[in-house]
Amino acid sequence: MKVRKAVIPAAGLGTRVLPATKSMPKEMLTIVDKPAIQYIVEEAVNSGITDILIITNRGKGIIEDHFDRSPELEDRLTAAGKADVCEQVASISKLANIFFIRQKETKGLGHAVNCARNFVGNEPFAVLYGDDVIIGDDPACGQLIRAYEEYGKAVVGIKAVPEEAISKYSSLKVSPLKDNVFECTDMVEKPQTKEEVLSLYSILGRCVLTPDIFDILDQTPPGSGGEIQLTDAMRTLARSVGMTGVDFTGKRYDMGDKLGILKATVEIALKNPLLGERFKEYLKEVVAAF
Ligand code: UTP
């Protein structure tokens, strides 16, 4: 079955980016001229997704406003002869069929994904973590969808992380299938001992899941950090029927981390056709003066 639905969990508290995220969702933090979540929605759309559910919570209405029409603003821009900017603003609301639901308590990523059960129905679906922006010519979500279509199993986007960092991520048991594609048969969230580390491959930012994940999530008790962990539910899938891991191409930026936000801003600005050259000159001057 074709993957046409995606879920973007964006209901986290963003405590690593405080005080910026006290009233501003981290998913709405700007990278150059767009909020982070718009890059993620565009990646989903460029991967063939037509229907997107964004999981929000109290205080995140600003995300809904961003994907809504803004007739007053559009009229003002048209009257001012700024048709190109007006088109940019209006086109955001036409990217996809975007729906919203609130996660009523912040009980973890697994709990957030479980809020999507009715939206998803009986179809495979993509999950794009709301604070992971991935930039690349071949959209990461689309790479995972192709692996789902080829192998017929749920897929995780994976990357190798440094050994000293693995205790902050998940760790996967993988064996190679071809090129950058692996079979994944076990996983552990935030391994605390060397023995728990299955490999340095970790799930980063994207997956394609099958609807049987919802019954598993219902049965998944709180894990690391007292939260219902999506990884714990995916481990059940990996151990029973197996999953596919794709070491996707593209650069990932962690918008849940202050340094990650700075890296995203600098690198994406350097690639910007209108600003890139001037920004590069400016950066050279600044760095030389430090
Ligand atoms: P994170 O664990 O990075 O988000 O979750 P967080 O809880 O905001 O992080 P801290 O507070 O800085 O440690 C990854 C993704 O899952 C979403 C987040 O919004 C983020 O996009 N999430 C997390 C939810 O939607 N609900 C939750 O209960 C937890």
3D architecture notes:
There is one protein chain. The protein has eleven helices and 13 strands. The protein is α/β, with parallel strands linked by helices and 290 residues long. The protein has two domains: 5-256, Spore Coat Polysaccharide Biosynthesis Protein SpsA, Chain A; 261-290, no CATH class. The termini are far apart.
Helices and strands in order:
Blueprint: E1 5-9, E2 30-31, E3 34-35, H1 36-46, E4 51-56, H2 61-66, H3 71-79, H4 83-92, E5 97-102, H5 109-114, H6 117-120, E6 125-128, E7 132-135, H7 140-151, E8 155-160, E9 170-178, E10 181-189, E11 201-209, H8 213-218, H9 230-240, E12 243-246, E13 251-254, H10 258-271, H11 276-289
Parallel strand pairs: 1-4, 1-6, 4-5, 8-12
Antiparallel strand pairs: 2-3, 6-11, 7-13, 8-11, 9-10, 10-12
Helix pairs in contact: 3-4, 10-11
Bound molecules: uridine 5'-triphosphate.
